[in-house]
């Protein structure tokens, strides 16, 4: 009997569904006080992973207790003069690309592909340079007061944020404005800034920005947008130094599960849209910094 072809989309989706059903979605797990706190997973050369690979490696790091951010293939470890320990299990990452193929008419046609390959975390490898390892340290605690650096970053994004005693946090599409309860009503500044990042990710989807709401407008769009915002806030938080906390309702989780079980590429699209949102927000903040200089 011929061996079944490896379906990378189904593999990734199955793993993430298992994480959600276990009550530990990968974009939440890094924020629950892991060994070294949350970090962007990076390749052996220090380049950050992006999109779906961020979620996959976060999930593996959380389940295995890895503290270090760097990942590499078996051969890359050997090239660095190091050795993967015997019995260690690799993690799956995916590479997207295009190849040119000649058509019957003699023309060149670009064909997209998705290829899986295997990597190991630095914590599974002996003999790497010391800067490849992240040693355990306590998570950052912002306390109950505003953080000047985070406030400055949020201001540079250009998002309009209104605060009132109303105990709700949301993005108002019609007014193009975020509403936040006062910071003193939050249990911690960490929870406050994590919530703002979630809402700013929503804000990035407006028509005059990434125009995400029109592109995803079917009956499951609301749950999909919440997934984009949650993943985007998590990615953004790591970039600026705050660990968001999430409190999504069971209905969202059920919606995500139903969507992913019906379409094994939903999580890929959500991760891609989240990455676009993070790139846009960081870009807006960067331009504001340049203009002020």
Explain the overall architecture.
The protein has helices at residues 8-21, 52-64, 74-79, 148-157, 189-203, 212-215, 221-240, 250-262, 266-292, and strands at residues 71-72, 83-84, 91-102, 108-121, 125-126, 161-163, 170-172, 177-180. The longest helix has 27 residues, at 266-292. Helix 4 (148-157) crosses helix 9 (266-292) and helix 7 crosses helix 8 (250-262). It is α+β, with helices and mostly antiparallel strands and 293 residues long. Residues 29-34 have low confidence and may be disordered. It is built from nine helices and eight strands. The strands form three sheets. It has a three-stranded antiparallel beta sheet with strand order 1-4-3. It has a three-stranded mixed beta sheet with strand order 6-8-7, covered by helices on one side. The chain has a two-stranded antiparallel sheet with strand order 2-5. The protein folds into two domains: 1-137, no CATH class; 140-293, no CATH class. A hairpin with a 4-residue loop joins strand 7 (170-172) and strand 8.
**Intertermini distance:** 66 Å
**Principal-axis shape:** globular
The helix/strand order is: HHEHEEEEHEEEHHHHH
Count of all domains: 2
Can you count the helices?
A: 9
Gyration radius, rounded: 20 Å
The low-pLDDT segments are: 29-34
Structural class by sheet pairing and helices? alpha+beta
Oligomer: single chain
Mean pLDDT: 83
Determine the strand fraction and express it as a percent band.
Answer: 5-15%
Estimated helix fraction: 40-55%
What spatial order of strands do you see in the largest sheet?
1-4-3
Strand element count: 8
